[in-house]
Amino acid sequence: MSTTLEAVRPIELSEIREACERIAGTIVRTPLIRLELGPDQPDIRLKLENLQPINAYKLRGAANAVAMLPQSERKRGVWTISAGNAGQGVAYAARQAGVPCTVVVIEAAPKSKLERMRALGANLIPVPYGAAWKALEERSFPGATGTFVHPFDDHNFITGHATMGLEILEDAPDTKAVIASIGGGGLITGVASAIKALKPEIKVLGVEPETAAPAALSFEKGSPQVFDNWKASFVDGAGGQSMFPRMWERMKPVVDGYIVVSLDNTKKAMQLMAERTRIISEGAGALPVAAALTGKAGKGPIVAIVSGGNIDLNKFCELIAS
């Protein structure tokens, strides 16, 4: 399918502020809390996006993107591609708009995410990870009809995520660094766009697991890269097989660097948040905490974005026990 895409352009502060008003009735203004670690550890604050109605930040982008679709496109229904969180966000926004939603979903997605998407009224088309990633590039999939809402390479979707950056600056104006997981790149691009518009001196860093780090490789090489040694893991919401060239173009001007963490340290971050703050985080949501604990982002204050908490509880217990 041939699709004419909107040219990549910077996200304006005025657009972010308009998005704040547009999605205010749908999202939760999530709290920012301190992770108490002691005087010799970095000062880490947690932006708790796991407390959104779908337990993940993707609702911000989905609510903004669906609300901005012309009525003629919305009434055809919408579809997206997801490992679970974007699918929930689009399904939630579509239900509010009274339109049908289909999700081409990665078949290995956690059962909790699949159940939540179905509960929100989404029609699911399970596919292997590679097929989903290919569909993201092609923006089409057999059997998926309606208006396609890209889960990261979409200006309005990213602008919705940017609203989080304004909240962070309001609640923690002394922030020195912000760390966000990178999957497709929409979260970090949005947050960084807001942060850099108001306080360009704040460092914005991305984090990926060592088993899936195309953004880190892209920063190292200076161009969008494919991660040949990609491996599936419990960190299903971050770390793709490649860096999309359009997302690299969006990220480059606003993201300062990257950190790569091990799966073991990600599990430890999940356990630490559960013990100290009683927060249940999925793997992608724990990556920024694991990154902050390396010391590579400085002493802080560091805001670690806990992007989601959609994980099967049995799996969560298994991971933190190991």
What's the SSE pattern?
Answer: HEEHHEHEHEHEHEHEHHEHHEH
Stretches where pLDDT falls below 50 for ≥5 residues?
none
CATH class of the largest domain, anyone?
A: Alpha Beta
Tell me which CATH architecture of the largest domain applies here: 3-Layer(aba) Sandwich
Output the radius of gyration: 18 Å
What is the count of β-strands? 10
Q: Report the principal-axis shape.
A: globular
Count of structural domains: 2
How big a fraction of the residues is strand?
15-25%
- SS-based structural class? alpha/beta
How are the strands ordered across the major sheet? 1-2-10-7-8-9
In the CATH hierarchy, the third-tier topology of the largest domain is known as Rossmann fold
**DSSP summary: helix tally:** 13
Q: Report how far the terminal alpha carbons are from each other.
A: 46 Å
Helix content class:
40-55%
Mean of all residue-level pLDDT scores: 93
Write the layout of secondary structure elements.
Layout (H helix, E strand, L loop, with lengths): L12 H11 L8 E4 L8 E5 L9 H10 L3 H4 L3 E5 L2 H13 L3 E6 L4 H9 L3 E5 L1 H10 L8 E2 L6 H17 L5 E5 L4 H13 L4 E7 L4 H8 L23 H7 L5 E5 L1 H15 L5 H11 L8 E5 L6 H9 L1
Helix pairs in contact: 1-7, 2-4, 2-7, 7-8, 11-12, 11-13
